[in-house]
Amino acid sequence: MKKAVIFDLDGTLSESIHSIKYCADQALAPYGYGPFSEEQYKYFVGDGAANLIRRALAAGGDTQGTHFEEAFAKYKEIFRVHCMYRVTPYDGIRELLASLKDRGVKIAVLSNKPHAETINVIESLFGRGYFDVIQGQKENVAIKPSPEGVFQILKQMELAASDILYLGDTSTDMKTGKSAGAFTVGALWGFRKREELEENHADAIIEKPLELLNFL
User: Fold this and answer.
1) Is the bond preceding 145 in cis, omega lying within 30 degrees of 0?
2) HSE (CB half, 13 Å, CA atoms) of 208?
3) Dist CA 49 CA 52 (whole Å)
4) DSSP per-residue string spanning 102-161
5) Phi, psi at 134, each rounded to 5°
6) What is the pLDDT of residues 110-156, one digit of tens each?
7) pLDDT tier at 28 (50, 70, 90 boundaries)?
8) 20-to-75, 138, 172, 176 alpha-carbon distances in Å
């Protein structure tokens, strides 16, 4: 039996595309870019806030990133205040987490969202101390798809990659889990399609959160 599950946050635990769009559209508007659709933002996100803003600027025509520094600074300022805007857990997530806890399986979060906002979202949705480890983007840790964050979580939990399931909804997540040597599970309720998860070698793909229990 697996001893822990590491979850991606956006598109896996939380339906957060509304907050991402809300904050990014406000950050980009002063420079004449956007608004962009939620569907577009689902493909702008995945490997950190900086890349989110770069992709949005490029989609608006600023392929050289002329306004990147200003827009990125503004996004971080807005996001610190509004990171919980219309954010909710996906249907079935609370039940999955409760089932894992009942079985003695540890739970952790690894996100490319800034660390402070990752903690804010998780504690707002699930309460302080509910997760065993929470890790967002930190300056001294390479962002996903680097497996470095997974290794740090494993060290804190005193586990090996073979002890865990890694659940996420994007190619970045599948690459992260595979690079760490974990069993990777793709979530179809998130931001991306089955084809992307298959092309990036997900070991399993599930349509509903509770299906994860089949792979423990």
Assistant:
1) yes
2) 5
3) 5
4) HTT-EEEEEEEEEHHHHHHHHHHHH-TT-SSEEEEE-TTSPPTTSTHHHHHHHHHHT--G
5) -125, 125
6) 999 999 999 999 999 999 999 999 999 999 999 999 999 999 999 99
7) very high
8) 9, 19, 18, 22
- Counted domains in the chain: 2
Residues 6+ apart with CB under 8 A from 84: 19, 120, 121, 124
CATH number of residue 68's parent domain? 1.10.150
The one-letter amino acid at 106: K
- What tokens does 150 get? 């997974």
pTM of the model: 0.96
81 HSE (CA, 13 A, CB side): 9
How confident is the model over 86-119, as pLDDT tens digits? 999 999 999 999 999 999 999 999 999 999 999 9
Q: Are residues 126 and 210 in the same domain?
A: yes
Residues 138 and 72 in one domain: no
Alpha-carbon span 195 to 174, nearest angstrom:
12
Q: For residue 138, what are the contacts with CB-CB under 8 A and spacing of at least 6?
A: 115
Q: How many CA atoms does the CB half-sphere of 115 hold within 13 Å?
A: 11
Structure tokens at 176: 């992260």
Question: Do 171 and 202 belong together in one domain?
Answer: yes
d(CA 213, CA 187): 13
Domain with 60 in it: 17-82
